[in-house]
Amino acid sequence: MCADDRQWEGALQAVQGLTVDQRELFQAISDLSEECYCADWVIGTKHNVWRLIHHGGSWGLWRFQVEATQLDRVRRAMSRAQCWIVWDGAGPAPGSVGAVACPARRIGRLVSARRRGRGRSRRGRVGALSVGLVALLAVFTLRGPPHLLQTLRGSASPRMVQSADGRLQVYAEPDSGAGPVLDVITGALRSVDMTMYELRDTAVEQALSADARRGVLVRVVLDQNLERARNQAAFDYLARHRVHAVWAPAAYAATHQKTVTADRQVWLVLTGNLVAADYASTRDFAILDRRPADVAAIEATFQADYAGVEITPPRGSALVWSPTSSESGLLAVISGARHALVIENEEMADPQVTEALLGAAARRHVAVTVVMTANPRWDTALGQLRTAGVRVAVYPDSAGALYIHAKALVADAGWSTARMMVGSQLLGVLTDPQPGAGPDHHRSGAGEDGREGDCR
């Protein structure tokens, strides 16, 4: 059974007597109960969630395999609060909710277990992930099995992988669905900041609205120069539901960025847009980044774009932005490859990129693989690459075929020099123009011509 309204109201009153960290832990456990049982706190929640964070497994009306990110949220809150929450819906009296101290060594073991177990399968929710004209490319060292490399080559099922320090996680679409995006949004306690090239997903819009209703500060920047017509419905819905929505600066030909930040502690960069109709048929990637320097850089840039003022985006620990540094960052990853290079992109029209790939394959004998969806506009460039020994895999542009929408580059996967660049950087003509310089100028968080940001 679950607590009735009277008991729940009493519990909420009792929770006010807890510390901020303890309240965050209570909310994390309650949200997990809501996810699995559609009830804020079912009887036995304290025992079952304790079991899940130790051993994983299933729970709920449909025996859900509980997602790793949901348990991570509980573990992080527990680590901050240094306690466990005890309540069985027994009554509304103050004190019916309590905090029981946990030994630090116990919490330390849970954190270690979390890091060892991040590769477990996830239950997708609604659709896939996207990145817009402010594109962030994430480039970082991957240790362990090169799962992303295998995914790009089509030789392994897509899955979530992470960097050695646990601060970066990579999700592959369409398998992950919109789960990573919704997890970031629904897990926020204080703020959500989103910059999006195209937003047409009612589940995401409703999640943003729900955050605003429970007191979270929600701000959204949407592209207006190319996608205003398609974004108008989402813009109007958000504005009616307490979300602070604004149009992106008109100085950029487009804002292609696709990023979501929560509580100024974690942010997500996408290669795909938040368009529900596209989720099931597109290859895209998403990166979850907890590195403080990157979060601060994203937030500083968001604040400027939200206010409509100019900024030179900070680089964080390894970010690349359009229009300032995306081209040089992209070419640096290509030129730095010594063994292997795998690239997925929606376009292949920039002569500097083509020349860099030709040099890697023909002069440095790097094993180069390019994966794309067929388009006559790229035939000349792909023909040149094939002649130089580049392995080119082309998917048909037809119904039922996977559409390669990703913007991902992996160098030397499996070697100590491994690096990856992921974001919204299209390989069109990368000229790094100044604001307002031309039609190819974008803001992006993954690097295209204009405002984009790439994480390295």
Folded structure, characterized:
The model is unreliable at 88-95, 103-158, 429-441 and 445-456 (pLDDT under 50). 50% of the residues are buried. 34% of the residues lie in helices and 21% in strands. The longest helix is centred in the first third of the chain and has 18 residues, at 20-37. The chain folds into 2 domains: 5-116, no CATH class; 124-456, 2-Layer Sandwich (Endonuclease, Chain A), CATH 3.30.870.10. The strands form 8 sheets. Strands 5-6-16-13-12-7-9-10 form an 8-stranded mixed sheet, sandwiched between helices. Strands 20-19-18-22-23 form a 5-stranded mixed sheet, sandwiched between helices. Helix 4 (68-81) runs antiparallel to helix 5 and helix 7 packs parallel to helix 8. It is built from 13 helices and 25 strands. With 456 residues, the protein is α/β, with parallel strands linked by helices.
Based on CA atoms alone, the radius of gyration comes out at 23 Å
| CATH top level assignment of the largest domain | Alpha Beta
CATH homologous superfamily grouping of the largest domain:
Endonuclease Chain A
Oligomer: single chain
Number of strands: 25
Give the helix level as a range of percent.
25-40%
Give the overall silhouette.
Answer: globular
What is the mean predicted local confidence, pLDDT?
Answer: 75
Q: How much strand?
A: 15-25%
